[in-house]
Write a structure and sequence with these properties.
alpha/beta; 27% strand; single chain; eight-stranded parallel beta barrel; TIM Barrel; globular
Length: 259
């Protein structure tokens, strides 16, 4: 059995680490480079970096911040935000990222997934999905709709259909974020996570809602996620990555132990 991964998420706005609730009322929390180094030293399996306003502002990603984070960590590093072309992806990889995450731009141009996978391999391409629960309909039979540009634009796309299409196009992994749970610290959206994870054959990272180690236990077992993204619970120093891994290991979840 593969180890479950614990992945701190760095949402970055104007060069600063930031955190909001359901994509609103963000609070700036400091230097993302310092935070990345801190989580790496605690035993994080990967680091995810999102420039959260690059797509909505129509600008390039903060490549200098990406480069400075990459210089401080020696674990897989996934980067997203404003990546519109294969050349954008190449710049991020050359700055030190092992994976590139596409979200809004992939919805607008699905061929971007195929092009990225062709250029760098599927293992480098992560589909980021921001999803909101809606009333099920013929157009959105799963009851979960894909939302882009930081929760600002509803696409009319069914989340399950989009996940399966992205896998077909060559995405090697999905990072699935529930907007309804995001930042609440009340737990992941387990039904959504289980729905997607059981219908795709690529690894799935659960995102949105982690507040206690019990939440990770639930999403990694009942939700069938391969990895769990965390933010508030470590950004606010409520828990360390090591404490979370100890909790999971003591309850039979296989995690990588570096100590």
């Amino acid at each position: 059995m593969l180890s479950k991964r614990i992945i701190p998420c760095l949402d970055v706005r104007a060069g600063l680490l930031t955190k909001g609730i359901r994509f609103e009322n963000n609070i700036d929390l400091g230097d993302p480079v310092e935070a990345a180094r801190h989580y790496y030293e605690q035993g994080a399996d990967e680091i995810v970096f999102y420039d959260i306003t690059a797509s909505s502002e129509g600008r390039d990603i903060l490549i200098d911040v990406v480069r400075r984070v990459a210089q401080e960590i020696f674990i897989p590093f996934s980067v997203g935000g404003g990546l519109r072309t294969v050349e954008d992806m190449r710049r991020v990889i050359l700055a030190g990222a092992e994976k590139i995450s596409v979200n809004s731009e992939a919805v607008k141009n699905p061929a971007l997934i195929e092009e990225g996978a062709g250029a760098f391999g599927s293992q480098c391409v992560v589909l980021g999905m921001d999803v909101k629960k809606v009333e099920a309909s013929a157009k959105i039979p799963s009851g979960y709709e894909v939302v882009i540009h930081g929760g600002r634009i509803f696409t009319g796309m069914d989340a399950l259909r989009w996940a399966r299409e992205a896998e077909r196009l060559g995405a090697g992994e999905i990072c699935l974020n529930s907007i309804d749970a995001d930042g609440t610290q009340d737990g992941y959206e387990i039904d959504l996570t289980a729905l997607i994870s059981t219908h795709v054959g690529i690894p799935l990272i659960a995102s949105g809602g982690a507040g206690r180690p019990e939440h990770l236990l639930e999403v990694l077992t009942r939700g069938r996620a391969d990895a769990a993204l965390i933010a508030s619970m470590v950004h606010y120093r409520t828990y360390t990555v090591a404490e979370i891994k100890d909790f999971l290991s003591n309850r039979g979840v296989k995690v990588r132990r570096a100590w």
